[in-house]
């Protein structure tokens, strides 16, 4: 037995070493395996992250890493969550702050069934299925001539019931590195009034008005690009008209601030790493866009946090929610108070994007309404030097293998000889007789017939 022990030990060591070699680097160093998600998509791209559940925020994601196919694994987000669902009603009868005052987690979180997650995997918290993990596919990740690629995404969602509403926080992580945080709102309408309140809602049944209201969704995104929390910067991009041209203006935001969408300048924002670059020497960045900000709910002076679409702050443990934040350790009540001119340079940056959905009830919202979705967009910019979805050689710019064909000159129609003028026919002379002669003959016959009848009558007399 003693002679076999070294061999057994070496065999065991070989197996363990082999398994460690085959096991990819993963974010499980930040959490236990029960709360770790590690998914490789069909094109070889990989997302891995940790999750937890809190009574107020519901599901929070941590240490979100992206690995492009045959590329380098890098952190994108240190943490990400919903930070408020603010619901003011048109009649001012209720102004809910659903996350801070109620919550998406704990008893508010709905236990999922496998039928809720077709072809997916249910992730459990204390034997309660709370997250659906699925692989989704969208058409046309890109197309160029005969090359066409669909794009896959890792999809994570949970469901929480707050009052009559059911909220569905959804996170989509795409194979090209894009991230789409979204919220679906469904369930049943919460508040009603009679026909006298029709100007503050919509008449959906006899003497029953569904009251109009707003859903202000706020997210909290702690970016740590490439794993560092102190070397990111925020830039605002605007297009300005100069004559007949549009000129891009890029401005770094130096201190904490709130900003709003401006359709006139196609405004968007970049969070950029100061040090990490792609193979072409371009700084890694993520672009933040708010494509659904077609309206803005500017509340009263007590709700100044609604006066901007996005806020940029430095990280503080006590800054948890966009509104009705617990005023602990000197923290303010809301986002407008978080912005207090602290420098963003060399700081751990937190981005608070929002979007607004105005819900005008309709008859079709009863007894249960379909889900209406609100989302924001996070897109990698210069994270890589080429499109990670395509295995083809670079065809951009002057390297086009099949350049666009030169426009063909317009076709000139052949010149035809002029046609001879058309001589109109000579007028046909009126024929003698015709309908006039026929009328005269009939009249003559009638006179003769009348004269004959008169003679005959005279003879009889």
Model description:
The chain has about 450 residues and is mainly beta. The protein contains 4 helices and 24 strands. The strands form 4 sheets. Strands 1, 2, 3, 4, 5, 15, 18, 21 and 22 form a 9-stranded antiparallel sheet that branches. Strands 6, 7, 8, 9, 10, 11 and 23 form a 7-stranded antiparallel sheet that branches. Strands 17-16-19-20-24 form a 5-stranded antiparallel sheet, with no helix packed on it. The radius of gyration is 38 Å and the shape is globular. The termini are far apart.
Provide keyphrases for this structure.
40% strand, single chain, mainly beta, disordered N terminus, 9-stranded antiparallel sheet, 461 residues, 12% helix, 24 strands, 7-stranded antiparallel sheet
Short description:
The protein is mainly beta and 461 residues long. The chain has helices spanning 4-22, 98-101, 335-338, 434-460, and strands spanning 36-40, 46-54, 58-67, 74-88, 95-97, 121-125, 128-144, 147-157, 160-162, 165-174, 179-187, 192-193, 201-205, 208-211, 213-223, 232-242, 245-252, 257-259, 268-277, 283-289, 310-314, 349-359, 369-375, 377-381. Strand 16 (232-242) and strand 17 (245-252) form a beta hairpin.
């Amino acid at each position: 037995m003693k002679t076999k022990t070294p061999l057994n030990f070496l065999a065991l060591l070989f197996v363990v070493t082999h398994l460690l070699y085959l096991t990819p680097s993963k974010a499980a160093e930040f959490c236990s395996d029960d709360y770790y998600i590690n998914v490789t998509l069909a094109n070889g791209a990989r997302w891995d992250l940790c999750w937890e559940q809190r009574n107020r925020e519901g599901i929070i994601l941590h240490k979100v890493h992206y690995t492009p196919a045959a590329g380098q694994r890098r952190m994108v987000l240190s943490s990400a969550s919903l930070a408020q669902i603010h619901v003011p009603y048109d009649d001012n009868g209720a102004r809910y702050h659903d996350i801070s005052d109620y919550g998406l987690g704990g008893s508010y979180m709905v236990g999922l069934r496998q039928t809720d997650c077709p072809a997916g995997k249910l992730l459990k918290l204390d034997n309660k299925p709370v997250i659906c993990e699925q692989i989704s596919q969208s058409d046309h990740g890109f197309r160029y001539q005969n090359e066409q690629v669909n794009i896959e995404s890792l999809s994570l969602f949970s469901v929480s019931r707050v009052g009559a509403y059911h909220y569905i926080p959804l996170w989509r992580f795409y194979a090209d590195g894009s991230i789409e945080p979204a919220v679906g709102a469904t369930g049943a309408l919460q508040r009603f009034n009679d026909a006298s309140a029709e100007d503050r809602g919509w008449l959906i049944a006899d003497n029953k008005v569904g009251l109009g209201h707003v859903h202000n969704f706020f997210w909290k995104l702690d970016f740590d690009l490439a794993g560092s929390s102190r070397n990111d910067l925020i830039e605002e991009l605007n297009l300005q008209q100069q004559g007949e041209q549009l000129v891009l203006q890029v401005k770094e935001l130096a201190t904490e601030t709130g900003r709003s969408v401006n359709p006139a300048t196609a405004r968007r924002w970049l969070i950029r790493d100061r040090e990490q670059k792609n193979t072409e020497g371009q700084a890694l960045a993520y672009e933040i866009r708010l494509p659904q900000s077609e309206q803005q709910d500017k509340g009263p002076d007590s709700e100044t946090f609604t006066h901007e679409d996005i806020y940029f702050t430095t990280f503080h443990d006590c800054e948890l929610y966009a509104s009705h934040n617990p005023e602990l350790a000197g923290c303010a009540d809301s986002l407008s108070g978080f912005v207090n001119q602290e420098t963003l340079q060399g700081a751990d940056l937190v981005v608070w994007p929002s979007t607004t959905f105005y819900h005008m009830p309709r008859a079709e919202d009863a007894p249960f309404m379909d889900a209406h979705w609100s989302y924001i967009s996070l897109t990698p910019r210069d994270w890589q030097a080429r499109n990670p979805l395509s295995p083809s050689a670079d065809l951009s710019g002057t390297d086009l293998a099949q350049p666009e064909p030169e426009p063909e000159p317009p076709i000139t129609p052949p010149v035809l000889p002029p046609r001879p003028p058309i001589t109109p026919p000579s007028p046909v002379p009126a024929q003698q007789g015709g309908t006039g002669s026929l009328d005269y003959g009939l009249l003559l016959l009638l006179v003769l017939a009348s004269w004959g009848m008169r003679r005959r009558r005279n003879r009889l007399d």
